[in-house]
Amino acid sequence: MDRCQTIDRLLEVDGVERRSLWQSLKADPGAPTLKQIRAWVKRLSWLKSLDLHSAKFFAGVPAIRMQSFALEARSLNAARMLEMESHKRYTLASLENDSHKIRQNSNGLLVKIARGC
Description:
Elements: H1 3-10, H2 21-25, H3 34-50, H4 63-75, H5 78-83, H6 86-96, H7 99-115
Helix pairs in contact: 3-7, 4-6
């Protein structure tokens, strides 16, 4: 399955749960518990398996522009993502799956635990 098909699949809303995988992709790490860390590590593996983010694709794009797009992606639900032009939808979804950001969130959980928060 190519990246575009993967992104389209993420935006499909489950009829039973009335939720898309896109919402799961945007989830925050949550409380710093051992259970949450295990869930976050599992999530990191899932996100890596999607293979949506390609550093080569964004080479030459200023970091501030990428942050702006990532914030926009984070603010949109699946229905809004589906309404926009496909090239923008795929770009925004790829930025939301930035593995660097995901690792930072994982490290943030570990720091919270180390501090006893």
